[in-house]
From TrEMBL:
Residues 8-440 form the Major facilitator superfamily (MFS) profile domain. It comes from the Bacteria. SUPFAM superfamilies: MFS general substrate transporter. InterPro entries: MFS (IPR011701), MFS_dom (IPR020846), MFS_trans_sf (IPR036259). Keywords: Membrane, Transmembrane, Transmembrane helix. GO terms for molecular function: transmembrane transporter activity. This is Putative MFS family arabinose efflux permease. It comes from Hydrotalea sandarakina. PROSITE patterns: MFS (PS50850). The chain crosses the membrane at residues 75-95, 172-196, 216-233, 262-286, 298-319, 331-358, 407-431.
Length: 447
């Protein structure tokens, strides 16, 4: 009798696995067909994001651990990341507006060249001043999900060029997904220092890998930038600079409405930026302090986080087409807010890892949908401005977070940054749902 029951259970498990495999196969075939339907330029920009995210994934895990191994204090680490955020925010505003007046492709090529030079310098030296300058210029360790740092407004504006307005929610979510999947692969590479180091330094909070073992990770960035230079150089751009429009009376209300939307976006992003800055850039450092873990444990956890967030981004794009961008963003991030409050309370690494993974999928899986909303608030010739304002209004408040969090973490307060971030996130969600409630449908081109 028992053997019959076990046999039936085994057959049921096999049937369920076959059903899952068939559904996954159909889903992957559908994704492949939709990918082939994208414009070649769109595919090139998205592939460049995937390559770029490899290095970002490795460094978002290991940069703070590397600096920690170099005996940098928590405040020093946070200060450098904050300075990088301020630098990126100011530069992104200039770059975005300039790209509206000229073209977008040259700016991205310039960014890749700068990043390649910085990665080589970081590989060759650990001299504190030079390493600080390189981190600030290139924005290493900030985990931009494959975005082109301060040049990301250019990337987003160019990506919109060959995508129909009603398809932007899905395409931008796919773009986000590719970034997260690349970050996941990069995070797996972040395990390497745990295996190649020659000896460890035992401190009161655990075991640290020798600092020199981290430096080869910067070569991942170098190789990725070379691939991106090839992809982006071959990509076509139709936009030739700002469109000169004749002055018409109807132009005034259109521009006034666009400005109103952008002003609201800037105001809301301030709260979101503070929340991200308090809880995001130093998360690996937090796991190391609270649980005494190193790259061997943190890197696989981060890799799983990025992979699942990438899958969540794809589903978010599909849901946003049916339920609307605003509804999708608000509900997903509201659940993520609850998980953020629980994160500093759990006593075990595995519990914190599960909460962090789930929160990331819900919170960051909606990034693409929010970017699609941003580029659709204005006409084509103002997309660089819109994406720049979106970036600056996030990055400037965000840049204050790492310094404050680093100081609190060094003082032994491992919970307050999460609670403060949750409060800012709650304000953001309430205001976001109210201000953009009329944008909760497939968006048409404002031009």
């Amino acid at each position: 009798m028992l053997s019959i029951v076990l046999k039936n259970i085994l057959q049921l498990k096999i049937s369920v696995l076959l059903l899952i495999f068939d559904n996954m196969s159909l889903w992957l075939q559908s994704i492949h067909q939709q990918w082939k339907g994208l414009h070649p330029t769109t595919r090139s920009i998205m592939l460049a994001r995937a390559f770029r995210s490899l290095g970002q994934g490795a460094l978002v895990v290991d940069l703070t651990l590397y600096l920690k191994a170099l005996q940098w204090s928590g405040f020093h680490i946070g200060w450098v990341l904050s300075l990088a955020g301020i630098m990126g925010a100011l530069l992104s505003l200039v770059v975005g507006i300039s790209s509206d007046r000229m073209r977008r492709k040259p700016f991205l090529l310039l960014y890749e060249c700068i990043t390649m030079i910085c990665s080589l310098l970081a590989f060759l030296t650990a001299q504190p001043l030079l390493l600080t300058i390189v981190i600030v210029i290139a924005g290493f360790g900030r985990g931009a999900n494959g975005a082109a740092g301060p040049f990301s407004p250019v990337e987003q504006a160019w990506l919109a060029e060959e995508v129909l307005p009603e398809k932007r929610g899905k395409v931008y979510s796919w773009n986000t997904a590719m970034g997260f999947i690349g970050m996941g692969l990069g995070a797996l590479l972040a395990i390497v220092p745990a295996f190649v180091h020659h000896h460890t330094l035992t401190l009161q909070y655990g075991v640290l890998v020798q600092a020199s073992a981290y430096r080869p990770l910067f070569l991942i960035v170098t190789v990725a930038t070379l691939c991106n230079l090839y992809l982006l150089y071959r990509a076509k751009e139709n936009y030739n600079g700002k469109i000169v429009r004749e002055s018409h009376p109807q132009e005034v209300p259109i521009r006034r409405q666009e400005n109103k939307m952008l002003a609201g976006l800037v105001f809301l992003n301030a709260f979101n930026g503070v929340a991200i800055g308090l809880t995001g850039p130093l998360i690996s450092y937090w796991f190391a302090l609270k649980f005494g873990k190193g790259p061997g444990e943190i890197a696989p956890m981060m890799a799983i986080t990025f992979f699942i967030t990438g899958i969540a981004a794809v589903f978010t794009g599909n849901i946003s087409e049916k339920k609307g961008i605003v509804t999708t963003v608000v509900y997903a991030r509201a659940i993520g807010l609850i998980l953020l409050l629980l994160l500093p309370l759990v006593p075990f690494f595995w519990m914190a890892a599960i909460l962090y993974i789930a929160r990331s999928a819900l919170n960051r899986g909606s990034v693409g949908a929010r970017q699609a909303l941003t580029v659709s608030l204005v006409r084509d010739e103002r997309r660089g401005l819109a994406t720049s304002l979106n970036a600056v209004s996030m990055q400037l408040p965000q840049s204050a977070g790492p310094s404050l969090s680093g100081w609190l973490f060094s003082a032994g307060n491992l919970g307050l940054p999460f609670y403060a971030g949750a409060a800012c996130q709650a304000i953001y969600l309430v205001l976001y749902s109210r201000f953009f409630k009329h944008q909760n449908k497939p968006i048409t081109n404002p031009s």
